[in-house]
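note to self: the first set is below, dont mix up w the second
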Amino acid sequence: MRIKRHYFKSWIFLVAIIVFIIPNTAFAASTGTSNLLRQFGSGYSSAGGDYISASIANGGLNQPYHYYIEVPAGLNRLRVSIFDADVGRGSENDWLSGSWNTSCTYTLYDPSGTNRGSITGSATQGNNGAWQNILSTTSNLIPGHWQLVVNMTSAVTTGDDLNGYGIRADNGDATTGGTELNVYAESFIPIGRVGTGSSTNTFYPYFTSGCTVDYNDWDGDNLSTHTYRSRTGENTGSFSGSGATAWRNNPILNYETDLINNDTGIWTWTGTYTDTGAGGNFGVFYAGNYQAADPPPTSQPQADTFRVYLPRDGAVGNVPNKPFITQKLSFVSGPNPPAVGNPTRVRVEIAVF
């Protein structure tokens, strides 16, 4: 650790505690087949709940959603699949606005930017209520972050229907003997509820910097609630969701300090959306660091936001296999606070899980 010379001279004792958590091989899917991701076609107004993919004329950004798949070196096969890749083939996963006039493309790019496969779903195309592979291959598995683009913008369709879908990435084996890959959004998550009642989705923001975190959500119609929990459990809380056709900013202050940082890494966020039967309650969620501008967002991906990981299944729970770090800085001897020209000794304890 480097201390700026113009601040104070110091001896630092560094104690590193490393704990390895061996990940279970993974199971099932990166998202399940209920409480799906949901986004509107660009013909819909952002008042319907989807600020990102609604048309610019209606106040949105008219942008596709971006997801990334972490592909490790040495993987022997890569399979990427979409659940319910249609839009409106009689499935309860979609929602009708007028007539079924919406399509959606799912396109997978490897780290070099090469298009490795695509699916187009509509009321006549796609795999209704089942998994459909975009890619299943053993060749040219470039390690790194593969990008999945889910596009319902005006370049694809002028429709205004809602599309519910799931994403799965693994080594081709969905059993307990297989390997499931981490999938994250960059940087927005589209969620909501179709029909009377409530639905709950859980995701995992990955905090890597800053002393504050901003949770931002759009158009919860005052019928959504949100809770968060850090990996160590030292930071927990809840807040009400946004009002109709509005963003709400919910800052979490000082989750780390100059002396103690116990919560860098994966957190858990849970959102519950309630629909009164008036046609659905849909929203958009993202988490930003201390430099992130308050909503509304101006780009996709939004600057200074954190990754938001999709849940994974298995005996160890739904938390993605990602590290988290705790750090504690404690005074040992010398001037406190430090003074220029006088040694101060501190102890830095770091644990990596």
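second set (the one i keep forgetting abt)
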Amino acid sequence: IAFIYRLGAWWYRQRKHSTLFNLSLSRVVLVAHIHWAISSILKIIAASIAIESATPRLTLLSIATSFFLGIYAVIQGKEQVNQDLNKNTSKSYDWWVYVGLVEIFATLVYSRLIISKLSLFDPWRVIFTCAIALAIYQIPWQNLGWRVTPWQRAALITPALMALVTAEDISYFSMIVTALFYLRIAYAQKNIRWSYISLGFINWAIIRLAWQYNPDLIWVGGMISLSILYVAQFDPYYQTHPRQRHYLRLVGSSILCLFALFEQPGIVPGVISFSLIFLGLGLRIRAYLFVGTITLILTAIYQLVILVLTYSFLKWIVGLLAGICSIAIAAGFEKQRTKTLNRLKNYNSKLQNWQ
């Protein structure tokens, strides 16, 4: 009935008529909208009954009705844009497209719930969602009469929403495909921040895989640390604010080192600290050099403490060697004090030019 009213109003409008059955065409359109709203409410009630029923009836008719309700709303969004061309009021009708897409998406979920054979596609639903969302994103909707904004927004949110809904049994391949989808969006929009969603899915996949075979918190710390360092390296804001980027790099690299010191003290913190030192020296980045050096010192102190506690006689040897080294360093510094201070100032001035 809603479609009949709507088509009748369109037909009369095309023939320059302003009334239908002594009603203005705007009133006829309003009546069509009322029928659509009532039908949508009744469809929600009917769908809930069908899902709870063991043997739902009129399945194909129910699904077709649901699809047509969504299509009605989508078409209404197009017609309103055409009527309000070049006016800001056309933006207020985007909600028709949103509602229509929500009804279509809900119909797909509803179809899966009442048709058990569709479970065959469950492992591929995230991949299908990404493919459909990418197609929706790239279609030139403005050439077809719609505003492109609601379509693109729906395409951007749907893959992540589907991945979160199916989080319990989502496959690694689906995570990778979703990450690639948002990388494609980042490239299309020339906005690196969309890749942060991809980074989140990649971290999710790596942490879940690592947790199955080696459930250590250092993996979590590593992913958090690398993610922060990625943001510090590529985010446009931090590229123009070097001081904030320096602090963020300190935080990111410190998280990994702290996890290594507390979770796996020994060789792992030493390897990480040396890696950060060489990375800082090679890339001229102060944060990596500072954190790597401090981590190396803490690792050495920890190993010395363990060694002394294990072999009590060694504490005298360690103390004696530490005293001799301190005296030698102090004597050498005092002998070449001026030259050493000049070198330190030179190194400090060079260090200020690093990132």
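remember for set 2: The CA atoms of residues 205 and 349 lie 43 Å apart.
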